[in-house]
Fold this protein.
Amino acid sequence: MNLPRLITVLETVAAAGRPLSASELQMATGLPRPTCYRLLQTLAEHRLLDDPDGNSRYLIGERLVRLALLGSADADVRQAAAPAMKQAAIDFGEAVFLSRFRNKGVEIIHVETPSDPARAFIHPGLGYRPMHACSCSKAIAAFAEESFRDDILAGPLKAYTEHTKIAADVLRAEFEMIQTRGYAECVEEIEMGVSSVAAPIRIGNIGATFSLGATGPIRRFTAANRKKIGGELKRRAETVGAAIGLHTADAVS
């Protein structure tokens, strides 16, 4: 298959900013009709183009959006997410953090803090987090492929505190619970006295590439408050996901 022609079709769809029919694409690209149809079929089979309504009108595909997301710079993602995260930090009165999947791990890439200078809060720090013991990691892992979770459970699982879950069956059950309620918790699993809650950020149909979390002292992160914050994070994760997705779509287009 001719790579330059594939790129031409993708660029034509991206530039249009609306669904294009096969005949419109053939006319716009000037490609022979059989060639254009073969290219469309190939791109659709690999989800680089999507036909969402099944009427042979094509948009940039979810897989291509995922590739753009995975390749997007942290600075661009932070810029897109920061306004909604800042408002969440003000509303919660706690630090709010954004994490992303990278290199088979999860990394905190941005933190927003409360604006009240008189209120103490816990900053989660930046960098990689263990896949089995941090809410931001578990929120992403729970919605990943089952084989990915199996890899996590098969590896050596470090106990950071007496509350860290390291038994495979216990963690597997927790992943199922996260899938059901829509958010993950970390209750003194990384550090005593510290708790966090995180919700997956799902953009389109490409799974959870990011997560949105909040952290604070266990005395404020009671079971009731964790449930309340978890519900709020689910809603706000949709807002952050929309902002990141819009930014990525602009970059792809």
